[in-house]
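[Target chain]
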Amino acid sequence: MTNLHRHAPLRVALVGLGTVGGGVIRLLQTNADLIARRAGCPIQVVAISARDRNKDRGVDLTPYEWVDDMTTLATREDIDVVVELIGGADGPALTLARQCLSVGKPFVTANKAMLAHHGLDLAALAEKAGVALKYEAAVAGGIPVIKGMREGAAANEISRVYGILNGTCNYILTTMEKEGRGFGEVLKEAQELGYAEADPSFDIDGIDAAHKLTILAGLAFGTELDFDNVAITGIRHVIAADIAEAAALGYRIRLVGMAENGPEGLFQRVHPMLVPLDHPLAHVDGSLNAVVAEGNFVGRLFFQGRGAGDGPTASAVVADLIDVARDEYGDALAMPVAALAQQHPADAGARVGRAYLRFKVQDRPGVLAEIAAATRDAGVSIESMIQRGANQADGVLVAIVTHAGEERCVLNTLERLAGSDSLLQTPMVMHILD
């Protein structure tokens, strides 16, 4: 429904005053008049809560009531909507979400981990109470991909959704690509510049992207959220030689989250992939994010923009608040929870495609023959094989590109080579986006 005559301010409680929380306050101050005209009323922060009252956040917090116990916000009649920006799949964020939705208070969040793990239950609570659960900021920062999928593409059957969902990984990979430097060196620089956390594992191991992919897949396909069945491989084992080989073959390496739905089941994977230069994802550089959705009537949709940071994420949060002010919202997952399909996981081994395999091996006769025999016996057809051995003391690199075939054959190749004293390290497999 749409309320065109609201004039009383929308009163907001803001929980979490990190980078994004400060951005929300600055955005509401800077664009106050424009936001009020678009929302039909002023949007005002009236209460705030965070762990440290004394921390300097670079924004004046004196106009707002500080609340030490954020659980009281759910039942306060002078607060119309709660915004949660503290993060975490469980703990205080989940408790607050359940409290607000259970008593019928609209809830806005940027918490992709919580939604990936508990989104189904939270959507059911919001549906039962008839209130908004909004989360545009949880996926791809300032890119309006949730609204685009839930509303703009609502009439389409989406067969596939995929994209670059983590800006930290994309920054690292594209910097390695442009400057020819190694992963560890670029990661350290990303941490110094603030692109990566002190503990970057959540990003570089693909968990963050997997949370976002889970949400996108549920919206795209009308299926229950299923984080536990996302196959996840991060980028920490991508080396400069992989970047160089990919470039020589006409590809760029990107961490891609991909989900497909069909008769064979629901396929979800986060994995570094070789992306052809003529594909738009190959040209998404730095900390940008991008999402591609393929609909049966609309064709390919491409969303690109800044996927993190105070400005883009705050933009998404405030867009959700404008919707709440207008009373414009539907089911959190684009349809009633009872209508969501329970889909079994697809057998990834049956997928057909090409792959890049990289081995670091002993520099001795017979090694290439050993690898070739393993691929032959596993049913893998080799399109090209490249051997580079600039430093024989450290072994040589062997890179293989396969013809299209079932993925289980590639895995079988690695199983046949497991334990071989010819291999100096675990092989790297990256699938090719065709």
In short: The first strand starts at residue 10 and ends at 15. The CA atoms of residues 189 and 195 lie 9 Å apart.
